[in-house]
Amino acid sequence: MTTQTTAATTPTTPTAPATAATATATTATRAAAAAWPTVPDATGPAAEQAVLDRVPTGLLIDGTWRSAADDATFPVVDPATGETLLRVADATPEDGVRALAAADAARAGWARTAPRQRAEVLRRAFDLLQDRREDFALLMTLEMGKPLAEARGEVAYGGEFLRWFSEEAVRIGGSYSTNPEGTGRAVVTHKPVGPAFLITPWNFPLAMATRKIAPALAAGCTVVVKPAELTPLTTLLFADLLLEAGVPAGVVNVVPTTSAAALSEPVIGDPRLRKLSFTGSTPVGRTLLRQAAGTVLRTSMELGGNAPFLVFEDADLELAVEGALLAKFRNTGQACTAANRFLVHEDVAEEFARRITERVAAMPVGRGTEDGIAIGPLIDSRAVDKAHRLVTDALHRGATLRTGGHPVDGSGTFYAPTVLTDVQPGSDLLRDEIFGPVLAIRTFRTEDEAVTAANDTEYGLVGYAFTEDPARGQRLMERLETGMLGLNTGVVSNASAPFGGVKQSGLGREGGGEGIAEYLETMYTLTPDPFRERRTPASRTNEGAAR
Ligand SMILES: NC(=O)c1ccc[n+]([C@@H]2O[C@H](COP(=O)([O-])OP(=O)(O)OC[C@H]3O[C@@H](n4cnc5c(N)ncnc54)[C@H](O)[C@@H]3O)[C@@H](O)[C@H]2O)c1
Ligand SMILES: O=CCCC(=O)O
Fold this sequence. Notes:
With 547 residues, the chain is of the alpha/beta class. The protein has two domains: 23-302, 3-Layer(aba) Sandwich (Aldehyde Dehydrogenase, Chain A, domain 1); 305-487, Aldehyde Dehydrogenase, Chain A, domain 2 (3-Layer(aba) Sandwich). Helices cover 39% and strands 19% of the residues. The protein has 18 helices and 23 strands. The strands form six sheets. A seven-stranded mixed β-sheet has the order 15-16-17-14-13-19-20, sandwiched between helices.
């Protein structure tokens, strides 16, 4: 794959309480005070420093940037170089509860705003993000490592949630109907569920935040956001943009922390919290669900995946190869949607493997800020170790190495893009999320065999299938146990579509019309038929007198 291919196909939609005494306010609504010059489409040390200088490094609580309660900070590191980019305030559990108190105090006011007003705030945020897209892209590449072309794709994708939910905010409906007996009228309305705690992962630092914040705000909910400790900078810069777009104090609060579990537990256990939306791994999701049971909290869970990628004997192989490159190597393989198991019909397996190996072997690896890079660093050394352990296990069990298969020497946490064929049943990478640039191929003989293998996992986020037979495509839609299916395409993500999984890949959906419903409560009111004469005591007396 050339970098140009990666860039062109990177999806744009995608086409690619507080112990208050110690917290101190440092700047009042920082964003309003800051002038923002037009950002040049530039990279290099000066551009990097300029964007880092713009990032607020405190906690956002009640519309004010603050230092942490104990003044502690933690470093955010560039995974390509190992160098510290910035230090960020490290929120304590008390800060988390204080942020929730702010969200609770702002709750009623925000819920009462006109939907149009909420829509316009989100639309302004969308416009501001477009103006600053180069800043956000560069910042994501710095803190997360993804190639700049992909980071630009994520700004476009993440921004679409702001635009989509600005449009959805004014379409929160309800219904008025006559009950079947004809004796009454049923009125169904939707209201904001209340303060929401949003926990996001490191792999899509902007889009995973906008995919939660935008529908929550559109619905009229206030939020506390806990970004991943590895990539808090994008969320902090985005929160500042939201203040500038007109989000009132307390509506969005942000608490980066290195103590995710300690901060989250009291917030989740606090009865003022009404909603938890989590994106991350399935094991952490299970823990949070157990905690949420304590207060019977509404939850949305976007969890891990183990996507099958099926190539049938009647597939357009060139299309399948392009789809495979996107489905596997987008974000250097670090996507919940990443194809984890390639199941290829035995008649076309060797040709598919030959073509894909040629492309993968040619992928430029390097720091994401450099021109033409297709494969950036993995997020940290643990991710490199995991990828390598899975590859080594597969090789020991009989797989064949076609290209890659090793960490890249030098600074940074890089893993060579890898293709394995003849992967044997029982190999760990067929069961575990690889979360790295490793493409593992097995073969199958029949459609039944392919479907059985595809469904043989506790996960069910997304699947991909390449076939030129429309009837087979329809059978797969009905038989694959996933929340999403890419049929002859390697990417499904789009702000207008319900994103989410079945089985242990999650609960609920983000995006589409479903996305805002996750932040709304349904209320039903019954009232008597207004055309029936009311049988008041007085009318009953009169009826009796008349008889
Ligand atoms: N389904 C989706 O939409 C989707 C999207 C992106 C990532 N993911 C999944 O996320 C995983 C990768 O992301 P990750 O490594 O950041 O996941 P993770 O579960 O380790 O962390 C996710 C978030 O949870 C926080 N966290 C961790 N332990 C916690 C605890 N005990 N209490 C509260 N918060 C806690 C982390 O600080 C981070 O903010 C993969 O499994 C991937 O598939 C899923
Ligand atoms: O990592 C999972 C999210 C990927 C996406 O939204 O396309």
